[in-house]
Every structure is written in structure tokens, then in C-alpha cells.
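Our preliminary data section would be incomplete without showing what the modeling component actually yields. Below, a chain of 117 amino acids is followed by its predicted structure, encoded as C-alpha cells that our downstream tools consume directly.
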Amino acid sequence: MEKRNEILELSFEFAIDIIQFTEILEEQKKYVIARQLLKSGTSIGANVRESQNSESKADFIHKLKIAAKEADETEYWLLLCQQSPNYPFNPELITKLVSIKKLLSSIISKMKTNSNH
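Predicted structure:
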């Protein structure tokens, strides 16, 4: 039985949610934010997935740090939607993103600690 990889699952599901949300933005002609959000929101999962084939612990940590940076950028675009009049917003996306950011931070921290031993 294969072990569940929570960060892979969460980041993939989040990417699907982002695709659906950006389609709503595009329907409302909010193209600039939609494109930025689509890029950063799907990049989180892409970098997490890439980390699974890393060449070393340092490479693994580096790829997850990139995913964390993409998560921060995604949060920025979502907060812009939240604060901008006439923009749709889905608070569930922020909730899911916070969970992803916490999990990434935890994994990075544990890997750094394990690397120092």
C-alpha cells in the first residue's frame, strides 16, 4: 500500500480549485489577475511534484522553498481579489492556501533539522 503524500494531494487539489476560480475571473474579464493567479496557483503543485524527484536534500528543500514563494504570491493575488470592488472572491481558497503554506513550512523546517544531524 502506497503511503499518502499530503502535500502532493493538497497542492494538486488547490491547483484544480485555482483553475476553476480563474475561469470565473476570465468570464468577468479580469484577465490580468486571472493569468497571474493561474500561474502562481498552479506552480505550487508543480514545484512540489518536481521536488519528489530531487537530486539531494538541498535540492528538495530548494524546490519546496520555490513552492512556498509561489504560495505567497498566490495569496497576494487572492487578497487583491478580496479587497477589490467588483472582483469575485472565494474565502475557501485562502483557507486551503494557509494549510498548504503551513505544511510546506513544516516540511522545510523538518528537512533542514534532519540535514543538520
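Helices lie at 6-27, 31-51, 57-83, 91-115. The radius of gyration is 15 Å. Preliminary results of this kind motivate Aim 1 of the renewal.
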